[in-house]
């Protein structure tokens, strides 16, 4: 079994690879503060669709552009 130090190193490496793949797909990290009401709606939509937070937010933004 891996030690805590090894596990943290492994987690950091996994996150680094994930971020690199997302960046290669043209995605960018953003940070946003949202209201409680918005968070409840977002969580409800995640449960309903099974999609990630990122996918739901991206879909909403693209719908605004239409």
Describe it.
The protein is mostly helical and 66 residues long. It has three helices and no strands. The chain has helices spanning 4-24, 36-49, 53-64. The protein starts with a helix and ends with a helix.
Give the overall shape.
extended
Integer count of domains: 1
> How helix-rich are the residues, as a percent range?
over 70%
- Binned strand content: under 5%
Summarize the structure.
71% of the residues lie in helices and 0% in strands. The protein is mostly helical. The chain has one domain (4-25, 32-64).
Question: Would you spell out the secondary-structure blueprint of this structure?
Answer:
Layout: H1 4-24, H2 36-49, H3 53-64
Based on the model shown, name its key terms:
66 residues, mainly alpha, 0% strand
């Amino acid at each position: 079994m891996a030690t805590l130090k090894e596990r943290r190193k492994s987690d950091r490496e996994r996150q680094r690879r994930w971020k690199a793949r997302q960046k290669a797909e043209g995605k960018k990290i953003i940070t946003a503060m949202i209201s409680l009401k918005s968070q409840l709606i977002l969580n409800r939509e995640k449960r309903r669709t099974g999609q990630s937070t990122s996918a739901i937010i991206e879909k909403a933004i693209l719908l605004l552009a239409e």
